[in-house]
């Protein structure tokens, strides 16, 4: 068993590197491979993590390693990690060295269905694997109008570049409820609702309407939903989100160093009370929702490793699960063309974060419930060490 775990940790290091560096592949290799039919295609939701414009180009959402680790596909033709098609098989290489064959993710059945008003369900809620679905209800971020966008963010660029034909459009509560109902019938068990920055009062009303629609169409009072919101100025509002039916809540602080935060996230300073208030909101949310039922996110690589880990450790001590996803200098953001730290930097952070999580008593189930997807590096470390992957039972990966 230790040999298997060692191999999976090696695959995890490759996965991490692919997430940081991206994947180098000619999009033509996917022609005739069944993307958008047999295998799941990318749908634009919130941000675009590819490093090239792909209007009119169909790309896979992810692929799986032989051990069953899910690797998100981020196109970068300068990456040393290359995907090649050999017959009907896709093979991952590092430079000229063959690493292993990979498997594309099967397309969910609901991706071919429409809501009662004619919206494509695959553009209402994307499937992030292991029963996690994600709704980007809008790429409307009013920070653009004030010139206070977060500097690493390309949410408005994604909206302007890809538009409604790629699924970047407003999602109505009924559409979400109908799509969630079908997805849950197919095995989904967690839904995240997220979107761009909108005025606080409008945000509250919308999230409540969405919760009500999901409950109505799924028949579930507890639908295991995560509401991703801006830190409310009135902290008493947090209890109303729980009363509405959300099991978990997320407020992404992004940066622990308050001076960098003030510079990089000016809109969150102006409209959400600043760094101190954001931390207070997370602390209060943990009281309302409970230990391990609140999530925050850091942009891994935007500040020093020491600072990020200090933030993760402090928030964990308050019952808040804080991740540090690898920073991708997105197209259209003010940091386009910059460089994220090396893959080894990000992998070391991930293992150290898991040590903090374990010390805080966070379970895998809590990580799953608070995440938009179950494929974070920290999730994978839990799955390897706790033998949760299908490969441990001799079963094929659930792709």
UniProtKB/TrEMBL annotation:
Pfam families per the UniProt record, alphabetical: Radical_SAM (PF04055)
InterPro entries the record matches: Aldolase_TIM, rSAM, rSAM_sf
Keywords: Iron, Iron-sulfur, Metal-binding, S-adenosyl-L-methionine
Keyword Ribosomal protein: no
Radical SAM core domain segment(s): 127-363
PROSITE patterns, per the entry: RADICAL_SAM
Source superkingdom: Bacteria
NCBIfam families: variant_rSAM
Name assigned to this protein: Radical SAM core domain-containing protein
């Amino acid at each position: 068993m230790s040999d298997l775990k060692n191999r999976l940790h090696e695959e995890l290091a490759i996965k991490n590197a692919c997430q940081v560096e991206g994947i180098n592949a000619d999009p033509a290799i996917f022609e005739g491979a069944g993307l958008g039919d047999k295998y799941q295609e990318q749908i634009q939701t919130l941000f675009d993590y590819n490093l090239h414009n792909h209007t009119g180009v169909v790309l896979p959402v992810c692929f799986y390693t032989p051990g069953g680790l899910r690797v998100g596909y981020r196109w970068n033709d300068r990456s040393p990690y290359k995907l090649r098609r050999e017959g009907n098989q896709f093979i991952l290489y590092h430079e000229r060295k063959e690493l292993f064959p990979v498997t594309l993710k099967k397309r969910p059945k609901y991706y071919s269905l429409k809501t009662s008003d004619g919206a494509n369900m695959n553009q209402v809620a994307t499937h992030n694997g292991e029963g996690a679905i994600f709704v980007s209800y809008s790429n409307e971020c009013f920070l653009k109008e004030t010139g206070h966008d977060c500097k690493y963010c390309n949410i408005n660029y994604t909206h302007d570049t890809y538009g409604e034909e790629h699924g970047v459009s407003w999602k109505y509560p009924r559409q979400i409820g109908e799509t969630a109902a079908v997805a849950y019938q197919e095995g989904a068990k967690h839904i995240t609702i997220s979107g761009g920055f909108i005025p606080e009062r409008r945000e509250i009303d919308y999230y409540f309407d969405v919760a009500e629609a999901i409950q109505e169409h799924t028949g579930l009072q507890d639908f295991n939903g995560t509401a991703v919101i801006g830190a409310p100025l009135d902290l008493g509002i947090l209890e109303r989100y729980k009363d509405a039916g959300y099991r978990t809540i997320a407020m992404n602080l992004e940066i622990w160093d308050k001076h960098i935060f003030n510079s990089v996230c000016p809109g969150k300073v102006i409209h959400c009370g600043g760094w101190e208030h954001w931390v207070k909101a997370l602390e209060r949310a943990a009281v309302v929702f409970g230990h391990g039922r609140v999530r925050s996110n850091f942009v891994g690589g935007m500040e020093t490793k020491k600072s990020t880990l200090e933030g993760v450790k402090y928030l964990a001590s308050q019952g808040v699960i804080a991740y540090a996803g690898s920073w991708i200098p997105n197209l259209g953001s003010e940091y386009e063309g910059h460089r994220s730290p090396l893959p080894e930097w990000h992998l070391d952070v991930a293992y150290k974060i898991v040590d903090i999580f374990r010390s805080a008593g966070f379970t895998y189930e809590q990580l799953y419930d608070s995440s938009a997807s179950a494929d974070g590096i920290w999730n994978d470390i839990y799955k390897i060490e706790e033998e949760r992957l299908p490969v441990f039972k001799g079963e094929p990966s659930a792709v």
